[in-house]
Amino acid sequence: LVTAKIQLENADSQLKSSKAQLDDANTKITSQQAIINTSRETLEDSYKKGNITKEAYDSGVKLLDSSQAELDKQKKQYESGLEQYNDGLKQYNDGKLQYEIGYAKYEDGKKQYEDGYSQYTSGLAQYESAKAQYDAGKAQYDAGYAQYASGKAKYDSGKAEYDKNYA
């Protein structure tokens, strides 16, 4: 469980780092798109007002189209990265859920072990108490049996003497 927790923490850190990189890339893409859009509007406005030649306009359009194509590639890379991030996040969440389920089972097993150990120590104490009572009872029995044996021996001796003298 410790290893799994460390792996989850590492994955969480990596996901946060990836998310920050994706957010940064998205901000840059959005900013670049705004620049291209503004540049395109400025170029068209300048051409309509006659401030630039057709060749300059065509050259500007070509440059902006090239920039847009490059930005579109970056957008696709971003979308691919976002998809990978979302897949990673799903795997992380699944792993975290499995860890939490496993940890709950571990805690349940630990509680069962502790309850069982408590029952064992309680049972052991009861056994030791019962054994002490048994040992005390056996000692009393042994003492009583010794008195009985001594009394029986006296009885047998007295009976034998009686039988010998009076029978």
UniProtKB/TrEMBL annotation:
The keyword Coiled coil applies. Residues 1-28 form a coiled coil. The keyword Coiled coil applies. Keywords: Coiled coil. This is Uncharacterized protein. It comes from human gut metagenome.
